[in-house]
Amino acid sequence: MDAPRTPAIAYHTFPKRLPLALTGIGGGLAVLGGIGTWVRATTIAADGAVPHEVAVVSGYSKGGGQALIVLGLVAAAAAFGWLARDGGPRTFPILASLAVIGVGAWQLAEADSQAAAMAEAATADPSFASYHASFGWGAWLLLVGLVALFLGLLVGVLREIDLRRPPEEATA
After folding, report:
1. Is 9 a member of any domain?
2. Residues 43, 30 contacting (CB under 8 angstroms)
3. Integer Cα distance of 17 and 86 in angstroms
4. CB distance 148 to 117 below 8 Å
5. How high is the pLDDT of residue 126?
6. Cα separation, 145 vs 34, whole angstroms
């Protein structure tokens, strides 16, 4: 009696549209992050318990935020380069993703430093019972966008490596 045969599991690379989707979503989130609020500061006065907003830093008001809006749009548009048959157009989403990731990481570090400086300056004011400065919704969207762009870049490059491998290595 023969044992049941199990079919050989074939190796499949990442789907063709996965890097496109991740890069497009990451670029769109970078645009929204560049527009949105990067730092929001709230305080509670010593005589009350109702918190109120005392400072807001928006991305679109800074040069880095405006650059992220433009670069995010470029990355979202360049995402379609992942679908190209030849390797040349695939360079565009790679370069656009790297540019957005670099500028975005730099701007997030700047926003964090600014929030820390705002909190440090508030310690000199005795009228505050509590003071809180942290990332706003734009900074969080930017962070998620940078992660999506990184994953799109990683998946796209790994898929490209798989496609360029000789067939005999793919089955070994």
Report:
1. no
2. no
3. 15
4. no
5. 73
6. 10
Q: Output the CA torsion sign for 67, 69, 72, 77.
A: negative
Task: Report residue 70's pLDDT band, with 50, 70 and 90 as the boundaries.
Answer: very high
One-letter amino acid of 34: G
Which residues does residue 37 pair with via DSSP β-bridges, in sequence order?
A: 58
In a domain, 11, yes or no: no
**CA–CA gap between residue 129 and residue 126 (Å, rounded):** 8
Residue 19 or 55, more confident: 19
**Domain assignment present for 10:** no
Q: Enumerate helices (H) and strands (E) in the chain, giving the number of each.
A: 5, 3
Burial 76-104, CB ≥16 within 10 A → b, else e:
bebbebbeeeeeeebebbbebbebbbebb
Q: What pTM, to 2 d.p., does this model score?
A: 0.84
Count of domains in the chain?
1
Give the structural domain span for 130.
18-163
**Is 157 part of a structural domain of the chain?**
yes
Residue 97 has what pLDDT? 97
Domain with residue 79: its CATH number is 1.20.140
The CB density around residue 69, as the number of other CB atoms within 10 Å, is 18
